[in-house]
């Protein structure tokens, strides 16, 4: 009888030990799942913050491009008015040169939502205008504006940035102003 009681106590102790081990194991699993869920929440928050930052950066770049294009347009308009040159339309979306706008062009137009190509075209026209082309050479002006290498999504890495275009325009404008002043003197 004593041996039987010892055997039953030993079985109870073994079952109790197994139950505790199972309880500890399940507690560790629950903690691991909770930790994984917490880590997932943290990662989602980080991704959301990074997405917002990218979006803000993209919006700032787009605003910068729009300001640059507006500045080039106003500078070009001033030069054209001074030179009294009649400019042809850059694309078929606008009746005149000044009606062309990447935001309002048709979706099959080369300037449709392509500020870089539009800025490049304006810059090319500005270069031609600064070389004092007369209205007689209007055909050459149109060829220059239309035959530009356009920036596409595939080749954006090799295209000059808006900042380099702005610096180039500023340098060219300063040189042109200096040459004009020298001619007057």
UniProtKB/TrEMBL annotation:
Recorded superkingdom: Eukaryota
InterPro entries according to UniProt: CCDC15
Stretches with biased composition (Basic and acidic residues): 45-62
GO cellular component: centrosome
Signal peptide positions on this chain: none
Chain positions covered by the region annotation Disordered: 44-66
The protein, known as: Coiled-coil domain-containing protein 15
């Amino acid at each position: 009888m004593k041996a039987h009681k010892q055997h039953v106590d030993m079985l109870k102790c073994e079952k109790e030990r197994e139950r505790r081990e199972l309880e500890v194991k399940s507690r560790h699993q629950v903690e691991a799942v909770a930790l994984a869920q917490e880590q997932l929440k943290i990662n989602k928050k980080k991704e959301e913050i990074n997405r917002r930052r990218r979006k803000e950066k993209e919006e700032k770049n787009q605003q910068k491009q729009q300001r640059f294009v507006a500045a080039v347009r106003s500078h070009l308009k001033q030069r054209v008015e001074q030179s009294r040159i009649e400019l042809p339309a850059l694309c078929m979306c606008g009746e005149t040169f000044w009606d062309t706008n990447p935001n309002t062009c048709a979706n099959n137009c080369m300037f449709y939502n392509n500020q870089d190509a539009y800025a490049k075209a304006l810059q090319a026209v500005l270069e031609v205008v600064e070389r004092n082309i007369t209205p007689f050479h209007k055909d050459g002006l149109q060829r220059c504006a239309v035959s530009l290498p356009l920036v596409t999504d595939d080749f954006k890495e090799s295209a000059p940035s808006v900042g380099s275009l702005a610096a180039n325009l500023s340098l060219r404008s300063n040189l042109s102003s200096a040459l004009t002043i020298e001619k007057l003197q």
